[in-house]
Write a structure and sequence with these properties.
Elements lengths: L1 H4 L14 H16 L5 E5 L7 H14 L4 E5 L1 H7 E3 L5 E3 L2 E8 L11 H12 L3 E3 L2 H6 L2 H7 L2 H7 L3 H7 L4 E3 L4 H12 L4 E4 L9 E2 H11 L9 E4 L7
Parallel strand pairs: 1-2, 1-5, 5-6
Antiparallel strand pairs: 3-4, 4-5, 7-10, 8-9, 8-10
């Protein structure tokens, strides 16, 4: 559609059809089947006043299309405080219904964890037998600080033997800002050359990154504070002009 509107010539075989929802939902359906309880439900953990309800509904409809025996319920963390429960045999229940799969469409922003009760809900789901998407270790692997640690040679060598692959992973510099000499050097380097780096917090996506003078000013304001430990400094990738 977009190529046609832009008057860009193309052949149909150059733009293969993609049905992302169908493939993702197939994973949910398979997980539900593997859980082994035909009466269990799938829970979508969503935000209050959810902005992305439409694509979530499409997934819900696709689940029904692939297996009409599966029931999907949508719950916020506050709903789960009231209605969720972890049993002694590690079944997670919403009211009286056993949960087979939990799909998180919330829980990626630290501002969502406003009470200890919400943290308790997340812990109980993680301790439960239900299949999580994502489980906590998978979500943590996507955070910047964990990625920084995984890129260190002493860690990479535990998982990868090919030195060329290790060099490739380390080709984009990542620098910790901990309250140590190494962190001090990284901050001074970024303040001196702000156009060569990007500062990233422990957040999803890139909307919270800082660049250039804004990054410089922010680093100057936190350089003597423990707050700096929550960020990671990275080389700024500059695409080649074509």
């Amino acid at each position: 559609y977009l190529l046609t509107c832009a008057d860009v010539p193309f052949k149909n075989e150059q733009v293969p059809e993609k049905d992302i929802a169908k493939g993702q939902v197939a994973g949910f359906v398979k997980a539900w089947e593997l859980y082994g309880n035909p009466k269990a439900i799938i829970v979508f953990v969503v935000l209050h006043n959810e902005r992305y309800a439409m694509d979530q509904r499409l997934m819900e409809f696709e689940i029904y299309k692939q297996n009409p025996n599966i029931r999907v319920v949508r719950k916020t963390f506050n709903d789960l405080i009231r209605y969720g429960k972890l049993t002694k045999n590690r079944k997670y229940l919403v009211e009286t219904e056993e949960v087979a799969v939990v799909y998180y469409r919330a829980g990626y922003n630290p501002t969502e964890f406003t009470t200890d009760q919400i943290w308790k809900v997340r812990l109980e789901i993680e301790q439960g037998r239900c299949i999580k998407c994502p489980p906590i270790h998978y979500q943590l692997a996507g955070t910047k600080k964990i990625q920084q640690l995984l890129s260190e040679p002493r860690v990479l060598n535990r998982f990868i033997e090919d030195t060329d692959v290790i060099d490739l992973i380390q080709s984009t510099g990542q620098y910790n800002l901990d309250l140590v000499e190494e962190g001090d050097r990284a901050i001074k380097m970024a303040i001196k050359n702000p156009d060569q780096f990007v500062l990233k917090p422990q957040r999803e996506g890139g909307g919270n990154n800082l660049y250039g003078n804004k990054m410089k000013e922010f680093l100057e304001s936190i350089q003597d504070s423990e707050e700096r430990c929550a960020y990671i400094l990275m080389d700024l990738i500059k695409p080649v002009k074509s």
